[in-house]
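Schema walk-through. Below, the input block comes first and the output block second. Nothing else is stored per chain. Lengths vary across the set, and this one has 205 residues.
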Amino acid sequence: MKFDILIAGVGGQGVVLASRLLATAAIDAGFHVTTAETIGMAQREGSVTSHVRIGDEVCGSLIPSGNADLIIGLEPAEAARNIHFLGNNGSIVVNEHAVMPSVLNGCAEYVPDQVLEFLKGNCQDTISVDFTQIAKQAGTYRAANVAMLAAAAGADLLPFSSGELWNVLEKMVPEKYRDLNRKAFDMSLERVSCMKETEQQTMDV
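--- output ---
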């Protein structure tokens, strides 16, 4: 068994925490795991990526280009920047909330909607939601990374269940933030469930 996850975002979005949560959940589920981070100027909202490789067949900490089973993009442009890692049958979970300074380096204008269309055009199995808004509704925008992990689990894109993932979150999230994160987690699961129902209804028509 081998399952590769690449998490991409910018400094301050919780990329490294998300990778640790996934790695711990995978270990608790009985899998072998390796992780690696590539951190740029994180304090200035620079690019941050984390490689989470699950399974006994893993060789090396970094995911080879074209081998990722899942990309979790906490920021649209960062997901697009790393799409070359995605495998042919891979999936994407992307946050529609853009962090503008991550790409405004004197280059062309950043139009998030165009980036999202690019991602959907290159990956049929793309879940695109404003997870930052879900997190804000739950009580803190900082829980967007937790909401995204919940969405991936709820869409059956991870090799363990949403319940197994929450068990790890419950242990790793400080008690004073636990209820907020649980709310963001549940709201995201509900959103994905509604999306799956809508998709199924469309297919049945």
